[in-house]
Structure formats: structure tokens, C-alpha cells
Design goal:
Layout (H helix, E strand, L loop, with lengths): L134 E2 L2 E2 L4
Pfam family, one: Cornifin
Length: about 140
């Protein structure tokens, strides 16, 4: 016979109960309980809980959650999530995230983003992208 457990009682890993916002119990990775928007637990990679966009929990490397502009979660470089226009995440070379032309991110030397004239992004000398009529610090850049 099993006992009913409410938000006032303990949350037992693997009991299939959701972690309730404001409850005092921690959500344990792999316990199979969903992370619910508004609760205080982080979404941890490899656990069985979904990361929900906009729930205020940080996006952790390995989590399958997209970074959505305007949500309350920070984008972490190298987490494999795409850089989305309007998101406040810098594109860092080698982080595995695609840079999207026109998203307002700086073109960084060695990144995989094409610099498109007029997209508002500065072209930096020595980077890997072809720039037509881009300028850097007011000086014309040599065409290749």
C-alpha cells in the first residue's frame, strides 16, 4: 500500500511525483520527475526532466532546450544551443553554435559566420569571413 504525498510532504526520488513550486524538496537528477516552471531547481544534463523554455531555470550544457529571446534563462557558450536573433549571447569561436547573420553579434576571428555588408555587424581584420564593403573602425577593409 502506498501513501499519498502532498506538497507538504517529502518528495521521494523515483516516485513519479512532480516537484511542486515552493516545495522544500530538491529535484534530484534522474528521478524522473518533471521540472515545473517557477520551481527553484536547475535543469541538469542527463536527468530525465525536460528543460522548459521560460521557466527561469538556466540552460545547462547538454540540455535540449533552445534559448528563446526574452526568456529568463541565460545562454551558456558551448551548450550547443543556436544563437537566436535578439538573444543576449555572444557568439564565441569554437563553441559549436551557429552565428546567424543580422543577429547583432560581433563577427569574431575564426568563427563560421559570413559577414554580410549592411547587416550592422563590424568586420574584424583577420577574421575568416568575406566582406564586401565592410569597414572596421572607420578604415576600409581589403577585399579578398
Amino acid at each position: 500500500m502506498s501513501l499519498a504525498v502532498t506538497s507538504q510532504g517529502p518528495c521521494i526520488p523515483g516516485d513519479g511525483e512532480p516537484c511542486i513550486p515552493g516545495a522544500a524538496e530538491p529535484c534530484i537528477p534522474g528521478d524522473g520527475e518533471p521540472c515545473i516552471p517557477g520551481d527553484a531547481e536547475p535543469c541538469i544534463p542527463a536527468n530525465a526532466e525536460p528543460c522548459i523554455p521560460g521557466d527561469g531555470e538556466p540552460c545547462t550544457p547538454g540540455a535540449a532546450e533552445p534559448c528563446i529571446p526574452g526568456d529568463a534563462e541565460p545562454c551558456i557558450p558551448g551548450d550547443g544551443e543556436p544563437c537566436i536573433p535578439g538573444a543576449a549571447e555572444p557568439c564565441i569561436p569554437g563553441d559549436g553554435e551557429p552565428c546567424i547573420p543580422g543577429d547583432g553579434e560581433l563577427c569574431i576571428p575564426g568563427d563560421a559566420e559570413p559577414c554580410i555588408p549592411g547587416d550592422g555587424e563590424p568586420c574584424i581584420p583577420g577574421d575568416a569571413e568575406p566582406c564586401g564593403v565592410c569597414r572596421d573602425q572607420g578604415l576600409p577593409r581589403a577585399l579578398t
